[in-house]
Amino acid sequence: MKSNTLTIQISKPVEDVFLFTITPPNSTRWITSINKETTNEWPIRRGTKYQLYNNQGEKFEVIVADIQENELVEWVSKDHNYHCKYTYQVISKNVSKLTYHEWVDNGEIDGALYPRCIRETEASFGKFLLTCITR
After folding, report:
1. What domains appear along the chain, each with residue ranges and CATH number?
2. Which residue, 93, 84, 41, 42, is CA-closest to 66?
3. How sure is the predictor about 76, in pLDDT bands with cuts at 50, 70 and 90?
């Protein structure tokens, strides 16, 4: 598989969704194979490095390639082959749309960073994120 895309609607303001999805270690709560997430700086900006550690202790690093507050964030791997982009859209004051898109330029995605939502349903992922953001 070369790419995955998932779009969900969440009953939260876009600012809350954006902040939750970019703040470490929150990805560990919805990406099953990641058990540790750190950054080299906060707040993040273009060039910020995220270090993700899988369940076997292996490190995978992605770098923020683009960020526009409450609109999008894109990460790329050090070799520029793997890309992951979140785009955010305001539906109403308290409803947002999040699109998760990951792809590789060469080869296949190995599944290491698949969010739970890819294996479950968009509805369950939306409920899961809503629960996490509420806490």
Report:
1. 3-134 (3.30.530.20)
2. 84
3. very high
